[in-house]
Design brief:
222 residues; alpha/beta; Undecaprenyl pyrophosphate synthetase; five-stranded parallel beta sheet; 7 helices; 14% strand
């Protein structure tokens, strides 16, 4: 196993960091890791806590993951912060998640900027609180010149919706005469995704231990 010469970002050292790459990273480090942040509610239930406490604990876990990804040399980290299916949850939990996502972005933006993290947003705008959209856009603007890890926050995101929106955009170009059907390639589809520059997913993780993709990064993981 190789010994890391990188240091943790200032202000945070992930739990149990040994200074070595884990076995999965012995050799080629994955460029793009996609994470379904699942199990916060179950974590809280097992401890007799409200579900919202599980989401709050997830904030620190996310920062640990970001720090670890920087140490390992990962270039892209995409996290499923709020899926299009999350709208089916109770109104109280949806309200909490909207406010929580907004507040996490507001609280952590300066810290992530200090770590040289570039933040991107992937997802649909309709139904999102305007304050959430505002924080997502502000985070993109504040970190757009950073050259380190690219952290893509997938908020109001669904893989099928992303492909539907891409196809709609391509159809509009064809209807306008800017593109011929014969000219449509995989590259055309990739160019119409929410964050076109994202590379293919090398490592797909789900924090709860379940083995479901949950409609996340379908094109990028294919």
């Amino acid at each position: 196993m190789r010994v890391s010469t990188r240091r943790a970002p200032a202000g945070l050292v992930p739990v149990d960091w040994t200074g070595e790459y884990p076995p999965a990273f012995d050799g080629e480090v994955p460029k793009h890791i996609a994470i379904v942040m699942d199990g916060n509610g179950r974590w809280a239930n097992r401890r007799g806590l409200p579900r919202v406490e599980g989401h709050r604990a997830g904030e620190q876990a996310l920062l640990d993951v970001v720090a670890g990804a920087i140490q390992a040399g990962v270039t892209h980290l995409s996290v499923y912060a709020f899926s299009t299916e999350n709208w089916r949850r109770s109104p109280d939990e949806v309200r909490f998640l909207m406010g929580f996502n907004r507040d996490v972005l507001r609280r952590r933006r300066s810290q992530l900027d200090h770590w040289n993290v570039r933040m991107r947003w992937a997802g649909r705008r309709p139904r999102l609180w305007s304050s959430v959209v505002g924080e997502l856009k502000a985070s993109e603007r504040a970190t757009q010149r950073n050259t380190g890890l690219t952290l893509t926050m997938c908020v109001n995101y669904g893989g099928r919706n992303e492909l539907t929106d891409a196809v709609r955009g391509i159809a509009e170009e064809v209807a306008a005469g800017r593109l011929s059907p014969q000219g449509i390639t995989e590259r055309t589809i990739a160019r119409h995704l929410y964050v076109p520059e994202l590379p293919e997913v090398d490592l797909f993780l789900r924090s709860s231990g379940e083995q479901r993709t949950s409609n996340f990064m379908l094109w990028q993981s294919a």
